[in-house]
Specification:
About 30% of the residues lie in helices and about 15% in strands. It has 15 helices and 10 strands. The model has no long low-confidence stretch (mean pLDDT about 95).
Length: about 375
């Protein structure tokens, strides 16, 4: 495996025997005497623990022991050799929570000062905080608003007939648009998605360069705004990387947004030598381990045990001002702010940042996270 191009002060190691798997982690800082200084960083898709490289040292400088794992199915952790047809049990939300619990315990911690999740990792961080507030003492959600536990279970239906539940027809409605469209998460759940990206016609490097560019503040067409409702007529306003043309895969979708040679040279937040590490890892593993998180996992039905439960620890949301991901679920951010969290401490949208906020604007991201963690 290639060496990881890490800043001095960030360490790399693999921990074995963690919930029947091995987990590669990046680490900065050290455990304090009172063992109340652990900060856990959970990456999204298609990223790695490496995506936190720019904020780990600022957090460690404040006295925190900072760890960032490659989540199961990613990078140098277990289950990267997964196939589409394999058992989805290891990728269930409850098992991923158990991964984080086992990882934290293996390091000699009984509590986590803050769990911080970005993109797909925000979902896992949200579930960690919701399900085990005794361990995860605060949570920062980044770029993707956590959608919360299932709604409260049907109540008093023995005595009063329940109103019928209206099923969403958004998939069918998107397909009827001109041109026909589809939601990217539905595409990510298909068997074709992995090879479409891994074996992209333009090559893996050009695919990832275009994908990261198109969702960043560098892409001039990213000027997000709130959508009125979950309607096809509203969703079609989203960029193609969220609501794709029905007949295209993601590699073909992002190709027109490939940045110029000059744009690549001027990209300070992701220069070629850093992108090359993502390329080396994903060329080896493919994307299926991450894509499993977008599947309709039958084992996630067990999350109904948390129906109606809210996040009761201090919480915050941080995103990029140019990030459409904040608004892809109409009303999602407002629900997080007003309903899902009982101790919400504010929303922060960072200027000149798109979806990859902790890489695009690490100084401001670090500042906000330090302020949040310190006061909690």
């Amino acid at each position: 495996m290639n060496m990881i191009p890490l800043p001095a002060g960030i360490r790399s190691r693999v921990l074995k025997g963690i919930n029947n798997g091995a987990f590669h982690i990046l680490e900065a800082g050290a455990q304090s005497a009172d063992s109340n200084n652990l900060v856990l960083l959970i990456h999204g898709f298609p990223e790695l623990a490496y995506s936190w490289r720019k904020i780990m040292l600022p957090l460690a400088a404040e006295g925190y022991h900072v760890i960032a794992p490659d989540i199961r199915g990613y990078g140098r952790s277990s289950n990267t050799d997964v196939q589409y047809s394999d058992d989805l049990r290891p990728f269930s939300t409850l098992n991923k929570i158990q991964d984080m619990l086992a990882l934290v315990a293996s390091l000699g911690y009984r509590t986590v000062r803050a769990v911080i999740g970005h993109d797909q990792g925000a979902t896992l961080a949200g579930w960690c905080a919701l399900s085990r507030p005794d361990i995860f003492k605060s949570v920062a959600l980044m770029s993707s608003p956590f959608r919360g536990a299932p709604a409260a279970l049907p109540f008093n239906t023995t005595n009063v007939q329940a109103a019928p539940i209206k099923q969403s027809q958004i998939t069918e409605e998107l397909a009827m648009l001109s041109p026909p469209r589809k939601y990217y998460q539905h595409y990510f759940a298909t068997e074709a998605a992995n090879n479409d990206m891994w074996q992209a016609e333009q090559g893996l490097k050009k695919f990832l360069r275009a994908y990261y560019h198109m969702k960043s503040a560098d892409w001039s067409e990213n000027a997000p705004f709130k959508l009125k409702d979950l309607l096809a007529s509203e969703w079609e306003k989203l960029p193609r990387y969220y609501v794709m043309d029905l007949d295209k895969g993601m590699a073909e979708t992002v190709l027109p947004a490939m940045p110029s040679t000059q744009e690549i040279k001027s990209c300070q937040w992701l220069p070629d030598h850093e992108l090359d590490f993502y390329i080396s890892e994903y060329s080896r593993t493919g994307f299926q381990g991450g894509l499993q998180g977008y599947r309709n996992n039958p084992y996630d039905k067990d999350l109904a045990i948390f129906a109606g439960r809210k996040i009761e620890v201090p919480s915050t949301f941080i995103g990029g001002e140019k990030d459409w991901g904040i608004y892809q679920t109409p009303g999602g951010l407002e629900t997080l702010e007003n309903e899902l969290c009982t101790h919400y401490q504010g929303t922060h949208l960072i200027k000149n940042a798109g979806h990859w906020v902790q890489q695009e604007q690490p100084e401001e991201t670090s500042k906000l996270l330090i302020e949040f963690i310190t006061k909690n």
